[in-house]
Amino acid sequence: MQGFSSSFLIFFQQIALGGLFAISVTPFHELERAFYKSTGGVLFIIALLGLWGKSGIYWESISQVFTWGIAAEISFHVAFVVTFACYMTSLWTDWQRFRARSFSASIITGLIGLILTARGFHSASVFSLESVIYPASFFLSSLLLGSVTVGMLIGHWYLIDTGQSLDPFVRIYKFFVVALLLQAACFVLVLPVLYFHGSPQIDAGFARLWTNHATLWALRVLVGQIAPLILSGMIWRTLKIPHTMAATGLFYMALLGVFVGEILGRQILALTSLPL
């Protein structure tokens, strides 16, 4: 079982990676490059903080027991930050091919790094149910965190550029809603499968969850799933007016709910080893 620090620090990695996925759905030709500089800058700082926070954990892991799995996780995490830095550098140049390749490389390395990170939270074999569900759960959380963050940031851009087409904002909004619904579907459909067909470690985790942390799980669903889903309907109504300032304020509230829900999920992960 991993401690809370290890569980929580994934939060930064997920925001940065999910944010890049959210940026990828925007129409690059419709938004000024300044938007990508500012939004990418925020995400890059978050990614850098995540790597800095995990550096001590990585060093401790290497010092105690060196494995190729740990080495691969560290390598791809570092590669993610480096390629992200290359993408940020490209935004101040006209090297379009370098920008496209560094952006793609940062998504690929970040995704592989997240999959390898998920591997450290269960002890089942590579060809097991956990080897699919844990990375999938981590990835869906990443998409949700990244989409709500970019949604809030793009809303601020509309406060600056009032004549901007609403299409980019709507695309990010739809991406956020899809990520939210996919995570809800994962909880409803996949976790029962894990409950009935998981390893003994999973069975022990569910026993601890229902016995000692049922209230924590209920808060996680209420704050991190139900509340943002209600807010998403309100955001859509404001975008139809359209009133981008109100939509941005609602995205703030949705971001707060998603962030608190995901932090509660990291606490559950640390206490039970369940990817909730």
**Mean pLDDT, nearest integer?**
88
What's the number of helices? 9
Q: How many strand elements? A: 0
What fold name goes in the CATH topology slot? Formate dehydrogenase/DMSO reductase fold
The largest sheet, given as strand count, sense and whether it forms a barrel, is:
none
Q: Estimate nothing, just give the exact number of structural domains.
A: 1
The separation of the N and C termini measures 14 Å
Shape: globular
CATH class: Mainly Alpha
Radius of gyration: 19 Å
Report the order of strands and helices: HHHHHHHHH
What does the model show?
The protein is an all-alpha fold. It has one domain: Formate dehydrogenase/DMSO reductase fold (Up-down Bundle), CATH 1.20.1630. It is built from nine helices and no strands. Helix 1 (4-24) packs antiparallel against helix 4, helix 5 (130-160) runs antiparallel to helix 6 (167-197) and helix 8 packs antiparallel against helix 9. The chain is globular, with a radius of gyration of 19 Å. The model has no long low-confidence stretch (mean pLDDT 88).
